Description:
The chain has five helices and four strands. The chain is of the alpha+beta class. It has a four-stranded antiparallel beta sheet with strand order 1-2-3-4.
Amino acid sequence: xxxxxxxxxxxxxxxxxxxxxxxxxxxxxxxxxxxxxxxxxxxxxxxxxxxxxxxxxxxxxxxxxxxxxxxxxxxxxxxxxxxxxxxxxxxxxxxxxxxxxxxxxxxxxxxxxxxxxxxxxxxxxxxxxxxxxxxxxxxxxxxxxxxxxxxxxxxxxxxxxxxxxxxxxxxxxxxxxxxxxxxx
Length: 184
């Protein structure tokens, strides 16, 4: 490493240390908190999209309560629907692990939603008492339309009529249940 390169890397650190030692606070970087006003990057901007988990996107208690309420409802719906449909196949024991959506932090639009399931079938070997276990993880991509606003998704799935798992997804004639049928 050249002396010039070493000094060019060291000088900013020394300058910061000296100003802090003399009582001057270092400049704070601009906030990186999500902007939920729906504004996109300015024209000509080179800012890349940045996605966060839906639960990180919501910032007020009403939004968070709606999101977590929806997740509880979806888990309940899965338990009810599962027994009469796809859960009667190769596996006798299905569990919903997590429904998760990526959200573009500035526009509030969904990148992708997946529902992760675990499934197993256990057989006891009568002659030995051993167990044979066939266990799988299914990552089911849900048929959410591109650029769907996450608040629209929550609103559509939280509608009081019927089960959320069967509700039409915004901008489509499909449901989360349809995503399971294609996945399982």
